[in-house]
Design goal:
231 residues; alpha+beta; six-stranded mixed β-sheet; 6 helices; globular
């Protein structure tokens, strides 16, 4: 049996609620309104275009939270949203559940930015049931791509943030313009789920005040041991 991660928390204060609300607003409100206002029936390129709306909502919902940067990482013609929270020193990226399953099983997955992100996660352990998966490995010739992806993610946030201590992937599932689930996970270098996982689905449609400023915890010297638990 896999480890019960129900009590685990990344301790992201109310950032988790803001992220979920940004996803919900983009997927359930803004995108359907765009379709309706422009009398659009076909959905050619819908899945790709909605990321522009998601990025806009992340910036709008998260700008009130203090010490939280929302930037984008350029990968060719594509831009993926990257959040960075100074207190936890973690970068946060986003992906649908379906896309993640595809990337996880790619033979050339070392070229994907997720492998670069996973390199920030040192010493994480895979969930027990994940060890049974027969996932493609990362070949030596892919190591340069992994290093490049890690560098690109680091460059996406402000240089003044200093060292990055970890990467958190926010996975979400949407069907028929309905946000069904959201979870935050930390990945191993092989893109397995680690034991660090938190379900954020409970925040979908929960009342949320985007105008409320969240005061971040101070990285005081006496709090050092407590902050280590957040990483």
């Amino acid at each position: 049996m896999g480890k019960d991660t129900g009590n685990f928390s990344f301790c992201l204060l109310k950032i988790d609620r803001a992220i979920v609300e940004a996803l919900r607003t983009a997927l359930e409100v803004v995108m359907p309104e765009i379709m309706s206002d422009n009398n659009l029936r076909e959905r050619n390129g819908y899945g790709q275009f909605r990321w522009n709306v998601i990025i806009a909502q992340l910036r709008e919902q998260c700008q009130y939270l203090g010490w939280l940067d929302c930037e984008t990482c350029t990968r060719g013609a594509w831009k993926t949203p990257v959040l960075f929270y100074t207190v936890s020193r973690n970068i946060i990226t986003f992906m649908t559940e379906d896309t993640f399953r595809t990337v996880q099983r790619r033979k050339d997955k070392g070229k994907h930015y997720l492998c670069g992100g996973a390199c920030f996660n040192q010493g994480v352990k895979a969930q027990y049931d994940q060890l049974k998966l027969d996932l493609p490995g990362i070949s030596e010739d892919m190591e340069k791509w992994v290093a490049k992806s890690k560098e690109q993610l680091a460059d996406a946030v402000h240089v003044a943030v200093g060292d990055i201590d970890g990467h958190v992937l926010v996975l979400f599932e949407v069907r028929a313009d309905q946000l069904l689930s959201v979870r935050a996970v930390r990945l191993t270098p092989e893109l397995e789920f680690s034991e660090e996982e938190e379900d954020w689905s409970k925040y979908i449609r929960m009342p949320f005040d985007a105008q409320k400023v969240i005061e971040p915890q101070q990285n005081a010297e006496e709090d050092e041991e407590e902050l280590v638990e957040l990483l």
